[in-house]
Amino acid sequence: MANEGLIVLPVKKLHVEKTICNTKVPPLPETEIKCPLSRLRPVTVDPVPFEELALWNATVAAHHPLGLGQPFGAHQRYWIHSRADGTSRVLGAMLFAAPAKKVADRDLWIGWTGLERQRFRYRLVSNSRFLILPGVRVPHLASHVLGIAARRLRTDWVSRYGYAPVLLETFVTPPNKGTCYRAANWRFIGESASSSRSSRKKKANNSIKMIFVYPLIRGWRSELCAPMPVADGEDDFNSQA
Question: What is the pTM of this model?
Answer without folding.
Answer: 0.83
